[in-house]
Target: tRNA threonylcarbamoyladenosine biosynthesis protein TsaE
Amino acid sequence: MKFITSSPYQTKMLAKAFASALPAGSVILAYGELGSGKTAFAKGIALALHVRDVVNSPTFNIIKFYPGKPLDFYHIDAYRLEGRNDDIGFTDFIGKEENITYIEWPDVLNDYYKNVKHLYKLVIDYIDLNKRQIEIVEVKQ
Model:
């Protein structure tokens, strides 16, 4: 499915609607240039999961955990893991039924999500300063 959003707020609301229908254990692979809106999309997922904490980019932390209801939310930014074989506990939560996992720059972690039951690819492209084209595709494995 393809969508056009005209503001970060619309991107968040699209993500909230999308996440409201996600099955437990879902993993979302987020692709897009730096600053394209991947973290805004993550904030919308957090809204759907009733996360109370402030959601921001985990670029320096790599992983951020947010307790939610009924599911918890893991937000990963694998940008800094490029070319490294770091295992910092990804198998403990990726694809597990008690949470939703959102991975920015996911290619370096493909061994961790290759057997996930509910996998989605998200691509965010710039159209102009505020406008984005957002494509969401369920990945059949």
Notes: Residues 27 and 101 are 5 Å apart (CA to CA). Strands lie at 2-5, 27-32, 63-66, 72-77, 99-104, 119-126, 132-139. The chain has one domain: 2-139. The radius of gyration is 14 Å.
